[in-house]
Design goal:
Number of domains: 1
CATH topology: TIM Barrel
Keywords: Hydrolase, Signal
Family: Belongs to the glycosyl hydrolase 17 family.
CATH class: Alpha Beta
InterPro entries: Beta-glucan_modifiers (IPR050732), GH (IPR017853)
Order of helices and strands: HEHEHEHHEHHHEHHEHEHEH
Number of helices: 13
Subcellular location: Cell envelope
Largest sheet: 8 strands, parallel, barrel
Organism: Amniculicola lignicola CBS 123094
Helix content: 25-40%
Bound molecules: 2-acetamido-2-deoxy-beta-D-glucopyranose
Strand order of the largest sheet: 1-2-3-4-5-6-7-8
């Protein structure tokens, strides 16, 4: 009896301590030929992500950019039922640029909550209000003709709108944040957004940092600089790595060259140092943006054999197997129970 109580207490303590770390890919709403993805397309993607050969773990999470299924006004995106079917965890995104309100994005989300209930809401890790909106109105965003964005004040307002809309739903305690480039987070003009969010989603691409010495040999330094700058700006707010990767093909960017070897080298050096230790959504399993000449997809044909060997080098420190159980729906039970047993032993000794 006593022992059982100790074990139960330790198990719940262990569960609380063993905070789950998410491993996923980004997924746009179209393919590179601008075709709108349907449920079957998302399902195939999510299944591939969970079954990649040689991968250090199951990529059982996906980050989306919109809640809306095109061409509808505010119907839920078909990635939602695909995620339910494949038990894929969701980092949701509301598209916030080029608009004065995000009512349609919010409607699509609340409709999905009504339609799918806890089958849907149990999968949601967080909600990102916007994606790179602050970058697009920054000096480099304007220089790169990145398109319409939003300023910090508008993003703060939209975040408050989302909090209010979710306040009466089962997502009222879900983390609400924003995704932007590391340089937008490091820009002090955007501090109000950091103050408002529950998490800071950072996009970091050493390939594009042509003013930071971006030869591939310096990629780790540039990445660390970007991550450190973001973490410093974020203060106590958790930093999630929402986009990172290196293109397999595409133009030279400053000193950076897009090659399959560099993409593999980046996976080994950066990916394998992060997987299982920080929340990471890799860019990308499959390319979406037809306007981007750099191609980042590691399996554009959705083969479980990716374009390069995904096995992490020994000594990279990557856990041998991350989330392999998640795909089957049993959570990170192994990890949790190891900690729980350890705690039970400590408690038993203490008593
Ligand atoms: C949730 O999933 C269960 C099991 O698949 C299913 O029976 C139920 O109808 C689903 N609920 C909704 C609201 O879709
Ligand atoms: C910092 O943010 C402000 C406000 O959006 C913007 O005007 C400025 O260009 C940004 N600075 C840089 C270096 O991008
Ligand atoms: C939330 O619920 C309260 C009480 O039921 C109600 O007064 C309020 O209007 C609701 N807010 C929204 C955004 O639905
Ligand atoms: C490497 O990257 C760091 C951080 O961006 C930068 O300070 C340094 O100048 C770069 N080194 C070279 C040789 O380009
Ligand atoms: C980033 O921070 C880590 C740990 O705090 C440190 O080891 C590393 O040297 C820093 N890198 C850069 C480029 O500042
Ligand atoms: C993939 O890389 C790992 C570690 O670097 C190596 O052990 C394995 O043999 C490689 N697999 C293939 C198919 O080349």
């Amino acid at each position: 009896m006593r022992v059982a109580v100790f074990f139960a207490a330790a198990a719940s303590l262990g569960g609380a301590l063993a905070q789950e770390v998410y491993l996923g890919f980004n997924s746009g709403s179209t393919t590179t030929d601008r075709k709108v993805k349907k449920q079957a397309d998302f399902e195939k993607e999510f299944q591939t992500a969970q079954n990649l050969k040689g991968s250090p773990g199951s990529f059982a999470s996906v980050r989306l950019y919109t809640n809306i299924q095109a061409p509808s006004k505010d119907d839920p995106i078909e990635a939602f039922p695909a995620a339910i079917k494949t038990n894929t965890k969701l980092l949701l995104g509301l598209w916030c640029s080029g608009t004065t309100n995000i009512d349609n994005e919010i409607n699509a989300l609340t409709k999905a909550i009504d339609q799918y209930g806890s089958n849907f809401t149990n999968l949601i890790i967080g909600v990102s209000v916007g994606s790179e909106d602050l970058y697009r109105v920054s000096e480099s965003g304007v220089r790169n003709e990145a398109g319409p964005g939003q300023n910090a004040k508008t993003i703060v307002k939209f975040i408050k709108d989302v909090r209010e809309a979710l306040g009466n739903t089962s997502l009222r305690r879900t983390p609400v944040g924003h995704v932007d480039t590391w340089s937008a987070w490091a820009n002090k003009s955007n501090k109000a957004v950091i103050d408002e969010v529950d998490f800071v989603g950072a996009n970091m691409f050493p390939y594009y940092e042509d003013d930071k010495g971006n030869d591939f040999s310096n990629a780790t330094n540039v990445f660390n600089y970007a991550l450190n700058s973001t973490e410093k700006a974020a203060g106590t707010k958790p930093v999630w790595i929402t986009e990172t990767g290196w293109p397999l093909t595409g133009p030279d960017w400053g000193q950076a060259k897009a090659t399959s070897d560099n993409a593999k080298g980046y996976w080994d050096a950066i990916g394998c140092s992060l997987f299982g230790r920080k929340n990471v959504w890799w860019y990308a399993l499959r390319d979406s943006n037809p306007d981007n000449k750099a191609k980042f997809g590691i399996s554009n044909e959705l083969s479980t054999t990716a374009s390069f060997n995904l096995t992490c080098p020994s000594g990279s420190g990557a856990p041998a197997s991350i989330n392999k159980e998640d795909a089957k729906g049993s959570g990170s039970t192994l990890f949790v129970s190891a900690k729980a047993i350890l705690l039970a032993i400590i408690l038993a000794i203490a008593l």
